[in-house]
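REQUEST FORM: STRUCTURE PREDICTION
Request ID: SP-0412
Submitted by: Lab K.M.
Chain count: 1
Length (residues): 266
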Amino acid sequence: MRDESAMRATLVRRTAVAASVVSLALLATACGGSDSDDKGEAKAPAAKDTATKAAVKALTAAELEKVSLAQGDVAGHKIGEAGPEDVSQAADITADKKECEPLGHAFYAAQRGAPVGTAVRKVVQEPKKGDVKDAKDPAGALAAGLDVTTTLVALASYEGDGAEKNLAELRDAASACAGGFTLSTKDGKQKFAKVTEAKASGGEEALAWTLVMEEEGVQVPLKLVSLRQAGTVATFASLNVGAAAGAVSDFELPSEVIAAQVKELG
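STATUS: Completed
RESULT:
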């Protein structure tokens, strides 16, 4: 059994790694039926639908900045532009299973495909007033103080059906990698023990997962949500400090952050 100093060192390392990434749910669509609802053969898209997809115009980077979250948009949260330390390059992230790389890219806010424009925000939940004071024991006070979720919100816009293909790629990756995979980044290797379905809503289509990162036998839940509104994909990668520290076993999706961003996207 590790002594207290070793556990503290592991906590600091694990929290630092996760916090530098920050980052939502598997195979949950916001509206419309799933593929399993259709017992017949897949139908070819109607001519009108095809024309609509082709007509989708991607937002520019400047336009995405205007619809990105800003301070004051989500009560109880601090919002700011993400720094270069928060966003990774796709070339710097590989997986032991090639089909799992889209999950790693999404989790680290790396660009996927050929977006016309991108914008990234960092959203940090503020500790709720009274949480620590009202806790009845030191352990409870610690858990309350650490129960804070940080979310990296990445927007990317695509022409035509690029946004739909983006989510489809994530759906396929989550299905293929449900049993776990290992990512290699500039900071080293990170093992993910499993990917499980969660439920999210918003936009025209929404997917959500819990990714369980494993370090030294300790499992840490992370949340990944990706949704589509027209030609824009919004991805939310979330870390809870308490979960990273082992003070809480799990945490909720950042629903308030998601709802606020969906509102901005219209």
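NOTES: The CA atoms of residues 240 and 251 lie 7 Å apart.
Reviewed by: T.R.
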